[in-house]
Amino acid sequence: MWEFISERGDIIAYNALQHANLVLQAVVVATVVAVGIAVVVDRFQFLDPIANTVSAIGLTIPSFALVGLLLPLTMIGALTAFICVAFYATLPILRNAVVGFAQVDKTLIESARGLGMSETGVLLRVRLPLAWPVIHAGVRTSVQMSMGIAAIAAYVLGPGLGGYIFTGLSQAGGVNAVNYAVVGTVGIVLVALVADLLMLLLGRVTISKGIRA
Fold it and tell me: How far from 122 is each of 9, 116, 119, 138, CA to CA, in Å?
């Protein structure tokens, strides 16, 4: 195993960075989309059950099935992998964002409006900071979930560590089949652990001590 890794150290490290980069970009886009949708849902409460239902249904769609649906539109490549990862990344963030905005004390919002804040100011300076701990928890969950989903990127020739897992499966019984599968699986776990640590630090930096759990 060690010889296998040492001979391919550079390319393994490169694929690990590609894997992390794919998840990072997808989660950033997912966060923006989910928070935007949650703002609309919070404004129009009748959309709340619809958002929860869509989130629940979306999470039940097998990732390979979604890839199959996307292929005729986006073809094989990184774009299909990105859209697939971003889709699943959006769902837990959306759920948490809806809950987070709903938990903000309405009297604080009215007070901010009474002080002359615009709706944008209330959103950016009151609602979003108070809802951020719950949203951050959703983003953290999304990052961890997306690490595994991103492994399917290899199926559509996307970037990341999933290629090692697929190679290991395709060479089952071969000399390096287990090595490929272990490197892909353990590599994804290690990248996920590092990402979770960074998310923990992000929470420490962006959540004020007064509302930190």
Answer: 50, 9, 5, 22
